[in-house]
Amino acid sequence: MRVVCRASPSLALVKYWGKLERGHNLPATPSLAISLGGLETVTVVGTSSDGRDRVVVDGTERELGRYEDFLAAARRILGSGRGFLIDSRNGFPGGAGFASSSSGFAALALALARLVELRDGRPAFGLDLLSELARTGSASAARAVYGGFAVLEAGAERAEPLFPASHWPGLRVVAAVVARGEKAVSSRSGMAATRETSPYYDDWVSDAPALFTAAKKALAARDLEALGALMRLSYSRMHASALASDPPLLYWLPGSVALIRACAELRGRGVGAWETMDAGPQVKVLCLEGDLEAVKRGLREALPGLELLVAAPGGEPELFELPPGTEPPLPRSGLS
Ligand code: PMV
């Protein structure tokens, strides 16, 4: 028996950056995120005959180290002693700052839970518990078990859904592939370095809740200009605190700066293009559906030949059983 989960990454509009010293993967700052519908991770899970775990991501077998804590938590939370076979594919560049760990660990938590329910006849696990399990893999994954818009409060074990995708169907996210390839400094070590060495870290953490509260209000009102301005403050302050680490942590490339400037220029011409960035050089731009073509054109004028992925607010992850002898679906890429 194999179970498939397709899930979309969770892009933070207000960023989580930094973990609490207590607990495991508890965020120091509250985050507000949108599910990037159109971009997808497809994860297939089954049980192993020898009780061992095996993890394949994008066709390459991975060291179990990164997954050990998560799989131990999965066995504990789901009450299972089984070993798992995991095969996960990203439709978009993985490990490159497109939040593949959020969709990856969310899909994995949901698929393992369904597998245990079916194989061991367990009653259905609640999404709140699975959000907690996903968080042990990657805190942003706690948000990705929900579609639409979700929040993860500072110090919270679980994320919460805020609005479904239908709250703002006309919203688009244009994700620009500034550079392919895995990022040099993972979000995990980048956050640790910032907390341990940046003199701006405490200010970043104490400033974040006000941005979060204001951004939730702007999102409720579907006010892109207000939300966009708050998003910009959130990623800029996150990166400013990281840049002040010792040694300095600079995720940006010249292409990132070119796109940030292109967004400013678009806004100067009355096109609502609001960028954000995560732990990598990629730039993601929020806009309304009616401005999508103008935004794509503006970004490609700044960087000719730029690869763009387009997302709209995504629905809840999908789960199904894979009939024997059938191939899982290919993950959608959002390529535009
Ligand atoms: O959940 P992680 O460990 O992949 O960290 C995510 C960090 C950011 O993408 C920079 C921000 C966020 O809230 O998703």
Could you explain the architecture of this structure?
The chain has 336 residues and is of the alpha+beta class. It is 38% helix and 22% strand. The protein is built from nine helices and 14 strands. Strands 2, 3, 8, 9, 10, 11, 12 and 13 form an eight-stranded antiparallel sheet that branches. β11 and β12 form a beta hairpin. α2 packs across α3. The radius of gyration is 19 Å and the shape is globular. The two termini are 35 Å apart. The mean pLDDT is 96. The structure holds (3R)-3-hydroxy-3-methyl-5-(phosphonooxy)pentanoic acid. The site of (3R)-3-hydroxy-3-methyl-5-(phosphonooxy)pentanoic acid has 15 residues, from α2, α4 and α5.
Name some characteristics of this structure.
8-stranded antiparallel β-sheet, alpha+beta, 9 helices, 38% helix, globular, 6-stranded mixed β-sheet, 14 strands, binds (3R)-3-hydroxy-3-methyl-5-(phosphonooxy)pentanoic acid, 336 residues
